Amino acid sequence: MAKNDELKAAKARAKEARAAEKLRRKNSTDPADMGRLRQIQQAYKLTHEYDKPLPFLLAGAFLVPVVLGVVIGLLIGHPIYATFLGIMLGLLAAMLLLVQRTKKATFTRYAGQAGSAEVALSMLPKQWTYSAAIAANRQLDCVHRAVGPGGLILIGEGDPNRVKALLASEAKKHERVSYGIKATTLVMGDKPGQVPLNKLADHVRKMPKTLLPNQITDLKSRLRALDAVRPTLPVPKGPMPTSARQARGSQRAMRGR
């Protein structure tokens, strides 16, 4: 009898845990917790805020292949097959367009915010890894790091004059532990000689391949040792708001107050 009660209690706890997890995933804003359909809905919703023509563009991308499919189907005598093919191509075209417009809207959304380089670096392919804000100062200038086939890349973000000194300091620290692997430095921004936010991921991804997979693994291990002795930076993750009041709050966080 006692075993039956324990079994029932265990089943009840498991049921409650499943219900709680289901509720958490339902209310989560993390794409990893969403199904494919909800991910698409969320992407559309966020993109439409910054891209008002989006519904018309998606409708056009879908309808053009469908109409062509119907016309071609009537001409060749296979309207059902050609229409179905047109629908599939229309869905594919609409999805590809949504991905493209979502990226563009994301860059528009975070442009000018401190820490926005992390948004671009998160779009790097899986061969690359990145570490956001490995170094920063009280003015919210910071240095991000990316490691991949194109080598060891340090990305400065902030005031060009201050961030160059920060980049030079970080390059020296990294090259002391990288054993011959030079650090490539660049500054994110819209001025001449800088890399714009919306082109940052492509710029890093297209770096000439200089490292083999085993070299990347070894370098990551050495960099973990470097990061382990760094003081913890009280820098919020991701882009930070730029209004005066919000920026003051971020600076207080930087000072640990």
From TrEMBL:
Keywords: Membrane, Transmembrane, Transmembrane helix. Residues 1-32, 230-257 are annotated as: Disordered. Residues 1-22 have a biased composition (Basic and acidic residues). It comes from the Bacteria. The chain crosses the membrane at residues 54-74, 80-99. InterPro entries: DUF4191 (IPR025445). The keyword S-adenosyl-L-methionine does not apply. This is F0F1-type ATP synthase assembly protein I. The lineage of its organism: Bacteria, Bacillati, Actinomycetota, Actinomycetes, Propionibacteriales.
